[in-house]
């Protein structure tokens, strides 16, 4: 009986060692902030605004052609309105919205990738104003002729109230009438990365 238990334990150890020995670390790709982009759109009862926010840094990790991990950091002090509305940009950076002076960065880190190849579903931690929430969205992976890789995700819906951004939220202030701003805003992400 002792011999059988010893053999079982030895086989389990060998199997565990073999698994870890052949598990390779994902190949790291560095995101090029100059070729990448993040756009946003926010809506209110009477219209909408859209613009950009700058990327600070990011990495993507691949097992072969399959996305395995990744993260990126956003420069919240770089928020721009497409129409060049300076007062709106100032307000978006203020405490009512993203509090860019106190929280100059937002970040996203992949926790799970479902699917392989060109179309995947990504779940990760999005941190805005020091608050972290899980978000899930579909993404497309494209391998380019110049050996770079492009990861794109469109129309990612983010509920700003989950990050403490309550300004003119109808779900928070029920008596606001038609002066509300929708809780959800949308971002589109394009990351271009290379080894």
Automatic annotation (TrEMBL):
<keyword id="KW-0732">Signal</keyword>
<feature type="signal peptide">
    <location>
        <begin position="1"/>
        <end position="20"/>
    </location>
</feature>
<dbReference type="InterPro" id="IPR007372">
    <property type="entry name" value="Lipid/polyisoprenoid-bd_YceI"/>
</dbReference>
<feature type="domain" description="Lipid/polyisoprenoid-binding YceI-like">
    <location>
        <begin position="28"/>
        <end position="194"/>
    </location>
</feature>
<dbReference type="InterPro" id="IPR036761">
    <property type="entry name" value="TTHA0802/YceI-like_sf"/>
</dbReference>
<dbReference type="Pfam" id="PF04264">
    <property type="entry name" value="YceI"/>
</dbReference>
<protein>
    <submittedName>
        <fullName>YceI family protein</fullName>
    </submittedName>
</protein>
């Amino acid at each position: 009986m002792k011999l059988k238990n010893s053999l079982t334990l030895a086989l389990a150890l060998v199997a565990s060692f073999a698994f870890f020995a052949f598990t390779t670390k994902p190949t790291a790709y560095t995101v090029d902030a100059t070729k990448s982009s993040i756009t946003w759109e926010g809506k209110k009862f009477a219209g909408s605004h859209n613009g950009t926010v700058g990327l600070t840094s990011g990495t993507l990790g691949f097992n072969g052609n399959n996305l395995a991990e990744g993260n990126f950091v956003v420069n919240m002090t770089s928020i721009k309105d497409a129409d060049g509305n300076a007062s709106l940009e100032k307000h978006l950076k203020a405490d009512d919205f993203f509090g860019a002076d106190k929280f100059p960065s937002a970040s996203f880190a992949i926790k799970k990738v479902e699917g392989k190849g060109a179309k995947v579903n990504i779940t990760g931690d999005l941190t805005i104003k020091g608050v972290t929430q899980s978000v899930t969205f579909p993404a497309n992976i494209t391998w380019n002729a110049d050996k770079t890789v492009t990861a794109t995700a469109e129309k990612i819906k983010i509920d700003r109230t989950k990050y403490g951004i309550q300004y003119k939220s109808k779900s928070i202030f029920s008596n606001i009438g038609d002066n509300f701003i929708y809780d959800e805003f949308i971002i589109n992400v394009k990351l271009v990365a290379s080894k």
